[in-house]
Amino acid sequence: MKRSSALIMAILLCGLALPGAAGPVRVPLSFDYYYTYDMVVEALQALHKAYPQLTRLDLVGKSEEGRPVYCLTVNNPKTGAELDKPAIYVDGNIHGNEIQAGEVALYLLDFLLGSYGRNPEITRLVDTRCFYVIPVVNADGRFHFFADANTPSDNRSLRIPRDDDRDGLVDEDFPDDLDKDGNICQMRKRDPFGEYKTDPDDARLMVRVKPGEKGEWTLLGDEGLDNDGDGRINEDPEGYLDGNRNWGFDWMPEYVQSGAGDYPFSGAITRAIAEFVGQRPNICVGWTFHNNGGMFLRGPSSKAQGEYPRQDIAVYDYLGQQAERITPGYRYMISWRDLYPTYGDSMEWLTMMHGAFGFVGELFQTEAERFVTLKEGGGERKAKPAGDEEEGGYDFREDPALEKERIKFNDNLAQGELYKPWHEFDHPDYGKIEIGGWVKMSSRLPAPFMLKDLVHRNASAVIFSAKNTPEVTLEIFEAKPMGNGLTRVRTRLANARAMPTMSFQSQKNNLYPKDTLTLGGQGIRVVAGGEINDIYLHQVAFKEFRPELQFLVVPGFGKVEHEFMVAGSGSLTVTYRSRHAGQLSRTVTLK
Ligand SMILES: [Ca+2]
Ligand SMILES: [Ca+2]
Ligand SMILES: [Ca+2]
Ligand SMILES: [Ca+2]
Ligand SMILES: [Zn+2]
User: Fold this and answer.
1) 170 C-alpha vs ligand 5 centroid, how far in Å?
2) For 266-282, what is the mean pLDDT?
3) Residue 92 phi, psi (nearest 5)
4) pLDDT tens digits for 515-532?
5) d(CA 290, ligand 5 centre) in Å
6) pTM, to two decimals
7) 372 CA to centre of ligand 4 in angstroms
8) Fewer beta carbons under 10 A from the terminal one: N or C of the chain?
9) What angle, rounded to 10 degrees, do the helices at 120-128 and 100-115 form?
10) Ligand closest to CA 233
11) Which ligand is nearest to the CA of 171?
12) CA 504, CA 310: separation in Å to the nearest integer?
């Protein structure tokens, strides 16, 4: 589809979600509407064009349908090479329908770049760190979410055809937009034995009948036909490969983990991102954004992984609890324990195979769209139970009070755009039915006027974690002649931030070599050296072989000190190298 027609389509489908006068995408970006996939690409190009000295636009790979997936890298080359800086990885929208995840990533970019040179905190952050941001992972999913009729929960999958019902046909029975309004809503049929009746307070809504009470409606599921005449409706839609079950750590086959795909990294874009991330060992922390439920999740993703080391949990807690405060109502949780177990998800891969601290941000709480706060009879309505991301949203009928509040929000704040009134339709299989209910742009996405608050708060949680990537300083705090041409040299590496230079999980698993400290110089020989355990009792863990090369980790908010006995005189250079904290060196002249 051409851009112009995609735009017109988006305007038709989103109504207020897109301004009528949507022209070319401009920097600073706007966050009072949702970007189609083509507009996301334009936005990245516009940011790169506006800030060429601070950004690089990389093609990470292409989707199954050939759409380009981009990463915008934020780095100031004047303050050092990209790989010599601690890096923050952010992606979103791996589930095609979870579009505001892309907006959070775009906002983060727009905010960092727009604040550079104006806000000292952000200027310093951008000068000392590197950001890798892939706003939309599932380019096809986002494209089709806008372009096609959908429920709020469709087009999650990567576009790899799959015969879901094993009938020999592939992707043969999508939902159908029977009333041609751009939404896949619900179907219901009059039925005195149905489980639902019309809500006496609002004729648009339904409530469950009580035991023994006469029914009025049977729900028939998503709008659709039996396209292949197999007696089932909507049984084999697009895909299904869940991009977030396709990663090469703790991957499980389809019969254990639905959506897994035929083998790890069978998705073109999951594979491309794994290679892209694999070439960037400086990534210290990663955020992958989804909707919904208002959660910040950390691993482990399955119980069998066991709990993370306590030192790493302390870091997660520090970042996660702060994210909760930045984003009131969101909860910091453990993925498998507080939500549900997953196998082969990207956060766990990033944590266990790449050694980063990984977070999933589940954006948006449906109950944030309030018209009134229900206080009558029992105070504040309690928060909804743990999120239901996989099943695609929240079943309002299980919480009539919430649905009533939401329909008033629809009437008075969204001017009716979120809910389709029930209307009659002649269905080839069901006969006379009604179609209606919540539309595509409802339920998992904030109304556009609330989007800016969501993107700013969540980007701020990322920024807090970015500030807490390691920040290491090196000093030679002693060079003391000891006689016989020997000098005692003492060094200190201090980390001013929360994250250690290597996670304890990575150390435990021996995932990659630790940081190094090397001593060298003309005519100089290191006779002995090791880490100082206790400087007052003079306890040093001397390294037996090659003392001029030490392996170490600088803990968060902590230090590591070393002691060396050095023979000879002249210039001695001490060099520190770290995957996560860059390179530093100091020189001292020995007499
Ligand atoms: Ca099939
Ligand atoms: Ca399918
Ligand atoms: Ca069928
Ligand atoms: Ca079929
Ligand atoms: Zn998701």
Assistant:
1) 24
2) 98
3) -155, 165
4) 999 999 999 999 999 999
5) 4
6) 0.93
7) 45
8) C
9) 100
10) 3
11) 2
12) 9
Ligand 4 center to 298 CA (angstroms): 38
284-324 tens-digit pLDDT: 999 999 999 999 999 999 999 999 999 999 999 999 999 99
| 246 Cβ contact partners less than 8 Å away, ≥ 6 residues apart | 158, 259, 260, 261, 264, 265, 266, 267, 270, 344
> What is the 223 CA–ligand 3 centroid distance (Å)?
13
Please state the φ and ψ torsions of residue 424, each to the nearest 5 degrees. Answer: -75, 150
Reported confidence tier of residue 23, pLDDT bands at 50, 70, 90: low
* Cα–ligand 4 centroid distance for 172 (angstroms): 6
Q: Using the structure block, give the residue that is written with the tokens 């990470």.
A: 60
Question: What phi and psi, each to the nearest 5 degrees, are found at residue 451?
Answer: -65, -40
Distances (CA, A) of 296 to 246, 331, 569: 21, 6, 54
Distance 143 CA to ligand 4 centre (A): 25
Query: Mind listing the pLDDT tens digit for each residue in 196-239?
Result: 999 999 999 999 999 999 999 999 999 999 999 999 999 999 99
pLDDT at position 420, please?
A: 97
- d(Cα 151, Cα 153) in Å, to the nearest integer? 5
* Contact predicate 532/563, CB 8 Å: yes
Which tens digit of pLDDT belongs to each residue from 347-358?
A: 999 999 999 999
DSSP state of 203: T
**110/246 Cα distance (integer angstroms):** 30
DSSP letter for 238, please. S
Q: Which two tokens stand for residue 166?
A: 């094993």
Q: How many degrees, rounded to 5, is the angle at CA 157 between CA 151 and CA 161?
A: 115
Alpha carbons 17 and 20: distance in angstroms, whole number: 9
Please report how the helices 100-115 and 37-50 are oriented relative to each other, as an axis angle in degrees rounded to 10: 10
| Ligand located closest to 169 CA | 1
Neighbours of 584 (CB within 10 A): 17
Which two structure tokens, joined as six digits, stand for 182? 């751009």
Q: What's the whole-number average pLDDT of the chain?
A: 93
Residue 21, pLDDT above cutoff 50: no
Residues in CB range of 236: below 8 A, 6 or more apart:
163, 164, 165, 167, 169, 170, 171, 172, 173, 228
Q: Enumerate residues with CB within 5 Å of ligand 5 (an ion).
A: 95, 98, 290
Centre of ligand 1 to C-alpha 139, Å, is 24
Between CA 561 and CA 552 the distance in angstroms is: 10
CA of 69 to the centre of ligand 5 (A): 18
Instruction: For residues 135 and 287, give the distance between their C-alpha atoms in angstroms, rounded to a whole number.
Output: 11
277 CA to middle of ligand 1, Å? 35
Ligand having the closest approach to the CA of 239: 2
238 alpha carbon, closest ligand: 2
User: What's the one-letter identity of residue 473?
Assistant: T
Residue 395 tokens read as 């079943």
In this predicted structure, the answer to whether residue 10 has a pLDDT above a threshold of 50 is no
Could you give the dihedral angle defined by the CA atoms of residues 242, 297, 132 and 444, in that order, rounded to the nearest 10 degrees? 60
Of 555, 553, 458, the closest CA to residue 497 belongs to 555
Scanning the structure block, which residue is given the tokens 């001695």? Answer: 572
pLDDT band at 402 (very low <50, low <70, confident <90, very high): confident
For residue 535, the model assigns a pLDDT of 96
Q: Which two tokens stand for residue 342?
A: 């997953």
The candidate with the shortest Cα–Cα distance to 570, out of 525, 528, 527, 524, is 524
DSSP-derived letter for residue 499 is S
Which residues lie at CB < 5 A from ion ligand 2?
162, 164, 171, 236
